[in-house]
Structures are given as structure tokens and as C-alpha cells.
Specification:
Rossmann fold; alpha/beta; UDP-galactose 4-epimerase, domain 1; 2 domains
Length: 331
């Protein structure tokens, strides 16, 4: 099996590439970041290219006519940034992505795994969401992913395509095998911020809202180890054809799957877990709620298990340990 992976040198993309290699899947990888030619992905074929550039894409597809599945992982993310810069998010995540899918359709590539997000769900009582839970994205990032899911549904109906949309919850951690990867974007998630405080690069952690209707007033999150998320992509590729039948007769060409840990953890509880692993106390301060946030959600995983045989293997503590080991090995 051969897959094409966009955004393959980013945090998620690089781990997805590792998972493909681990599962014996041949990966053709592209990314447009400036220093792409200085980087390598062992076991993969890499191109510095932009998925939105039709000429570049056609050249890559000409060179690899045996690609079976496309994993579209390239995106711009971050909720707060999307509120401040909605044009960038809609243009990249919707407009450019739609043109990319159009190119794939014209090349008769009809099997797509799409990196979506749990940020499109509305708040629900108890916070546990299934793939049929109400949709109400609160930020341009979430809305851009939901709009693209709707476009893909229409493409499936009109052009005889098939799509598995993986709705990621909150990825954290580092490759569990300790392979070298790109540095995490500084402060890009809760775990990175806590590591910066641990290393005296920052002084205090801000709790964005302490009055949410949760058990301790802080947001509920579903933190998933990035290696589990990456493995979900590999299993979606390996079991693509049977996934729709496994999911149920109502799923013929479009299937969305929750990819999370299945555990609800508040922000305060995550900090406590970090303190227990490190033996260090994290100073915190209460701050205002961020635009685009909701009280929280966590994933019901039964459909993902049934469709592609996937379930997470790692705990929150494992993700914390793997990130700490990653930074220790960089020193």
C-alpha cells in the first residue's frame, strides 16, 4: 500500500509518517516549510511542495501513479489565532483544500483520510460526545474544518469518492520510540507550556477560565498521545475499504471517527498529573475565558474501534514522560 501525506513535517504529520513506516505502509510525503530540504523522514519519499499548487501536485502524482490513499493533514490550526486571523484559516483550510480535493478527483484518487477536529462539537451534558453529537464550532478554526467536512460529503456523493474524517481531540506527547522529530512549537499546547515553566522559561501557568460548569471550574479536555493519533491514521489506511461496512450500513462513502483517549481530564487535573510525574509544583493564576473555548468534551470511541479496530494504548502520564524524555535527549 502507498499513501500520500500532506503536511508531513509538522508535529502531527511527522508522527503519522512514523506510524506508516511502523505498519509497513509506503509513504510519499510533502510539506512546504522553508527548511524542508534540510530535513529527512527515514523510510519515506519526501517532496518540498505545496498541496495547493496544482502543477506540483500533478508532478508528484505522475511520479507515483500507484498511490492508493491520500491523508490530508496539512492545515493551519490554533483556536485563538484563528479568531484574530480568520482569513488565513478559511483560505488555507477551506479554499485551498477544496482545490486540492478537486485535483485529486481529476486524477481519480477517490480515497481520502482527512484530519478534522473535535472542536466542531457543541457542549453536551456530561461532555461525552459521539460522532452524532450536536455540531456547533465556536472558532474560525473549528468552522473551517466543519465546512471542509461538508464539502467532502458533497464530493463523495457527486464524484464517487470515499472519505474517513478523523476528528482529533487534544494531541500531546512525543514519539514513544524516541525518534528525533521536529521541535514542538514553543507553548503550542498545555504540556509544552508546563515544560517551559519546569525549565524556568516561563514563570506561571494561566488557567483560562476557572468558572466553567465542570467539577473543578476548569475546562474538560480529552488528551490523546500523538502516537495513538498517528496509529489511528495507519489503521484507517490499512482498513479503509472495510471500515464503512464495519461501521454500519448507513456509512457508504463518508465516515467520521472520534480520535481521543476516551478520558475526561480537567486542566487542573492535568497539571496535577504533571506535578506527580515531575515532583515539581506548578504555579498557576486564574485568567479570563478565551474566545472560541467551550467547557469541554471527551470522546466516545466505540465507532472508531468498530470501524478500523483502533483504540488508544497510552495514558496521559505516558505522554508527559515521553515529552520530558524528548527534551532530555535534545540537551
Amino acid at each position: 500500500m502507498k499513501v500520500l501525506i500532506t503536511g508531513g513535517l509538522g508535529y502531527l504529520g511527522r508522527n503519522i509518517c512514523y506510524a506508516m513506516v511502523d505498519n509497513g505502509i509506503e509513504a510519499v510525503v510533502l510539506d512546504r516549510i522553508e527548511n524542508a530540504n534540510d530535513l529527512s523522514l527515514d523510510g519515506c519519499t519526501f517532496y518540498k511542495a505545496d498541496f495547493a499548487n496544482t502543477e506540483q501536485m500533478n508532478a508528484i502524482l505522475d511520479a507515483h501513479p500507484d498511490i492508493d490513499i491520500v491523508i490530508h493533514n496539512a492545515m493551519v490550526s490554533a483556536i485563538a489565532k484563528s479568531v484574530e486571523h480568520p482569513y488565513e484559516f478559511y483560505h488555507e483550510n477551506v479554499v485551498n483544500t477544496m482545490e486540492f480535493f478537486h485535483t485529486l478527483k481529476n486524477r481519480n484518487l477517490k480515497k481520502i483520510i482527512y484530519a478534522s477536529t473535535a472542536m466542531l462539537y457543541d457542549s453536551v451534558p456530561g461532555f461525552l460526545v459521539t460522532e452524532r453529537s450536536p455540531i456547533k464550532p465556536r472558532s474560525p478554526f473549528g468552522r473551517s474544518k466543519y465546512i471542509t467536512e461538508m464539502i467532502l460529503r458533497d464530493f463523495c456523493d457527486a464524484y464517487d469518492m470515499q472519505v474517513i474524517a478523523l476528528r482529533y481531540f487534544n494531541p500531546i506527547g512525543a514519539d514513544y520510540k524516541g525518534r528525533v522529530e521536529l521541535p514542538h512549537k514553543a507553548g503550542s499546547n498545555i504540556l509544552e507550556k508546563l515544560v517551559k515553566i519546569l525549565n524556568y522559561e516561563e514563570r506561571i501557568f494561566t488557567l483560562y477560565g476557572t468558572d466553567w460548569e465542570t467539577r473543578d471550574g476548569t475546562c474538560i479536555r480529552d488528551f490523546i498521545h500523538v502516537s495513538d493519533l498517528a496509529n489511528a491514521n495507519a489503521l484507517a489506511a490499512l482498513h479503509f475499504d472495510e471500515a464503512f461496512a464495519n461501521a454500519g450500513k448507513q456509512y457508504s462513502n463518508y465516515l467520521s471517527l472520534n480520535i481521543g483517549s476516551g478520558n475526561d481530564v480537567t486542566v487542573k487535573e492535568f497539571i496535577i498529573a504533571f506535578e506527580n510525574v515531575t515532583g515539581e509544583k506548578i504555579p498557576t493564576v486564574a485568567g479570563p475565558r478565551r474566545k472560541g473555548d467551550i467547557a469541554g468534551s471527551y470522546a466516545n470511541l466505540s465507532l472508531a474501534k468498530r470501524a478500523i479496530g483502533w483504540e488508544p494504548q497510552f495514558r496521559v502520564e505516558d505522554a508527559i514522560i515521553d515529552v520530558l524524555n524528548y527534551y532530555d535527549n535534545k540537551r
